[in-house]
């Protein structure tokens, strides 16, 4: 089994991502009501921004998830916690796909390795919805340190955000 990450291609990857984000299990992702065109618009916007990036996880060349990053110095999420130089914000969505079954730990490990190798990255910042028990448990499993719990309101979301931090250097 080989896990890789590649840059997300909004045109080519939108159909798979649309399926993933509109599943009930992806409700915390906040795109459940988006049609195909809106999903492509969102990921095209991300692709155009210097402070944002999106990648596709693949297991043996089969797409199984999305990894998004943001620069907390630029992104509005950064106003909700004490930022540090070298912070990289992370959003993660794993698909319910047979190619990922039983391989979640390897997929997450590949993502963490990829992120920690990014130039200047010193700490990963996660802010899952505090009600998302699976994400919170995953943060604890990877050894991330619990940070503040805030009632986050941004242009894209409103949620009780539980911050987690993972030192990579």
Automatic annotation (TrEMBL):
Domain annotation Acyltransferase MbtK/IucB-like conserved: ranges: 6-53
SUPFAM superfamilies given in the database record: Acyl-CoA N-acyltransferases (Nat)
Gene Ontology MF annotations: N-acyltransferase activity
Keywords associated with the record: Transferase
Domain of life: Bacteria
GO biological process, one term: siderophore biosynthetic process
Listed pathway(s): Siderophore biosynthesis; mycobactin biosynthesis
Statement: the UniProt record of this protein carries the keyword Transferase: yes
Record-linked InterPro entries: Acyl_CoA_acyltransferase, Acyltransferase_MbtK/IucB-like
Function: Acyltransferase required for the direct transfer of medium- to long-chain fatty acyl moieties from a carrier protein (MbtL) on to the epsilon-amino group of lysine residue in the mycobactin core.
Protein name, UniProt field: Lysine N-acyltransferase MbtK
Species whose genome carries this gene: Nocardioides humilatus
